[in-house]
Amino acid sequence: MRDAVGSVRSVLLLGGRSEIGLAVVERLVHEGARKVVLAARGGAEAPHSLAALEPEVHSLDFDAALHETHCGIVAAAAELVGDLDVVVDAFGVLGDQAAYEADPVSAARDSAVNYTGHVSVDLAVAARLREQGHGTLVVLSSVAGVRTRRFNYVYGSAKAGLDGFAQGLADALHGTGARVLVVRPGYVPTQMSRHVDPAPFPATPGQVAAAVARGLRTGAHTVWAPPVLWPLFTVLRALPRPLWRRLSR
């Protein structure tokens, strides 16, 4: 398989300061990737842990809200490193539900980042991978989008849209040599989630990265981190709504 982990030479990270995204990049560099592009608003520097591995690192200014620039960002990344073997879509905003209810404008603004920004840039990535005839788009979804919950339904609904979009995109790319890997982590303790109460079955960024690497190696279309979330949410999706409503997390 051309885009199995051992043959990955280049990685583009959309959301160049994402702790989970950087953990995925580091894992792929450990396993042989040598060219990295970090795309983030204002650009992004490689953290020490990544720089110490001595890959070739480039930085691009990427704004999820500027949809008209997204095709150019993907093209610029390809100009820097050649074919894009893996593109990791890891940007997003994890806001506060109560704050969103008090300020609908902020809810709409963040939802646009968490959904329509991905639609725009992922379609640009898909066109590039289709043209190459190989490559994997890794989309960081969330269990929050599997079934939205009352304590974070603004964020969860955007993730639900992204998850559905990514699955449809995967089907659209079938047979082209390009593919999509959807990643569904549970609670991951990071700087972005520091204001959120911990949830059962957490995963570290490193554990999510290991799941991604395993998914690339096996050709999976979806991975859960930790894996126990798959059978758990199979049951929870069928839970009667009055019981679902009572869940605190």
TrEMBL record:
Keywords: Oxidoreductase. Transmembrane segments: none annotated. One of its GO terms (molecular function) is oxidoreductase activity. The keyword ATP-binding does not apply. Gene3D superfamilies: NAD(P)-binding Rossmann-like Domain (3.40.50.720). InterPro entries: NAD(P)-bd_dom_sf (IPR036291), Sc_DH/Rdtase_CS (IPR020904), SDR_fam (IPR002347). Belongs to the short-chain dehydrogenases/reductases (SDR) family. This is Short-chain dehydrogenase.
